[in-house]
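Researcher: I'd like a structural prediction for the single chain below. Treat it as a standalone chain; there are no partners to consider.
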Amino acid sequence: MKNVKGVKILLVDDEPHITQFLELGLTNEGFEVAVANDGMSAVNLAIDFHPHIVVLDVMMPGMDGWEVCRLLKKNLNNVAIIMLTAKDEVDDRVKGLTIGADDYVVKPFSFEELLARIGARLRNQFPALFSEVSFGPFKIDDRRKEIIFFEQVLELSPTEYELLKYLVINHGIVLSKTTILDQVWGYDFGGEENIVEVYIRSLREKLNDKEHRLIRTLRGAGYRVDLP
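Model: Treating it as a single chain, here is the predicted structure.
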């Protein structure tokens, strides 16, 4: 990632080998990193540190990640929380999103995946940090709510804009329909999953992606944007 100077990340996990590994990697990427090894320390540190991103483990002794997430969302004006968990249960994911978590990563995970998700959260929640972000042939200007594709401004509805932005920012990552609904429509969306297919079809038409080489369908898994 570029232009991360001044971006603050708080790591919260009771396993030192995980925090040490992540702290080293994120510091080398240019982030300002702080570490807490338990929930209460995390809450106290966050109030002074004012992180943009909190990478938060769910299963910790004492105050667990759910309670930390709830308190951070209550006490900080704007913070993105990425939950780390060894569980891959739908109920846990829904619980995290309900109390304010912004993303969910299942252990074990690669550093590259976490870095990509951190970048996605920054661009979604802190667009002022990035005036215009480029990904291959795409340029996303969140302040103007415009996406340029091969130097042409796409005519997009507000939902199409949010969906394409989410897909492009998370390029290379397989995104399920459920994940897309949570992030674009909101976890309390009461409609059908098929709405995602309708909007994907519309985006493909506007991108002239007739052969689905740009927005790929992975049967039974979801969608993935592959940048040329």
